[in-house]
Design brief:
- By secondary structure, this protein is an alpha/beta fold.
- It contains 11 helices and 10 strands.
- Strands 1-2-3-5-7-10 form a 6-stranded mixed sheet, with helices on both faces. A 4-stranded mixed sheet has the order 4-6-8-9.
């Protein structure tokens, strides 16, 4: 089984590779897989490694225990209040690194699917929203709970506010309450809800379906989607048209269209 070459094995994360699908499991259930600085940096490093790994076509993100992630490690943040600057420098660092992580997920030239069992709150909910797709177990719960602790979820709203309508996003942040998997599906935060305990299996099955397609086509298409989605209509169409032209120039595209015309399965490049 292939392993990450740039990232050492960590008690915070487990990587499993199978048939082009990389499963990354957060393995710190004792603190609900909190996005501590160490967890964030581990994820950033391993995503950078996956980006260069041609054998990795789709990523599935999961968590051990009762949460995908409960958000930032509030004990870690609180401990830095004893710093001479009352933790401001640390807080600036962790928010910047968290933003880097979320943008790394979007920039990764491979689709990323969140498999959610248990809770995904605050920055953990942000993590789900940053992924391209999400599958939730029926008892999963989602929330932007920071306001309950006096900390409005401004950064999580960047991702959540792009995944769901503005009014739903603001409701989540203003109330701080937990929302059911069914509500998250209705909001558009997750793609679908499956029986409890099935989220990872369903996410992997979806990943296998996606992994069967051309890797260059997936990379070009994902990049183009995020480039155009926040742009005015004319700019969006220009960006999308360029992506289509670039995609048409790929050998995989010539093979795929040829296979369609010849009524045979395509043979994608490595």
């Amino acid at each position: 089984m292939p392993s990450s070459s740039a990232v050492k094995p960590s008690e915070l994360l487990r990587r499993e590779d199978e048939a082009g699908v990389v499963t990354l499991t957060l393995t710190a259930p004792q603190n609900r897989n909190a996005l501590s600085l160490a967890m964030i940096d581990t994820l950033i490093l391993i995503l950078a490694d996956i980006a260069k790994d041609d054998s990795a076509r789709v990523v599935v993100l999961a968590g051990e225990g009762p949460a995908l992630s409960g958000g930032h490690d509030l004990k870690e943040i609180q401990a830095h209040r004893n710093d001479p600057d009352r933790g401001r420098a640390f807080n600036e660092q962790i928010m910047a690194r968290c933003a880097t992580l979320m943008q790394a997920i979007v920039a990764l030239p491979k689709p990323v699917i969140a498999a959610v069992e248990g809770v995904a709150t605050a920055a953990g909910c942000q993590l789900v929203a940053a992924c391209d797709l999400a599958i939730a177990g029926e008892h999963a719960r989602f929330g932007l709970s920071g306001v309950n602790n006096g900390l409005f979820c401004s950064s999580p709203l960047v991702a959540v506010g792009r995944a769901v309508s503005r009014k739903y996003a603001m409701e989540m942040a203003l109330t701080g309450r937990l929302y059911s998997a069914a509500e998250a599906e209705r909001f558009g935060l997750v793609n679908r809800v499956v029986p409890e305990g099935r989220a990872l299996d369903e996410a992997r099955a979806l990943a296998q379906t996606i992994a069967a397609h051309s890797a260059p086509a997936l990379a070009i298409g994902k990049r183009a989607f995020y480039e155009q989605i926040e742009q005015p209509l004319d700019v969006a169409y220009a960006l999308a048209a360029k992506a289509m032209v670039d995609n048409l120039a790929e050998p995989d595209c010539a093979e795929g269209i040829g296979a369609f015309i010849e009524k045979r399965p395509p043979r994608w490049g490595a």
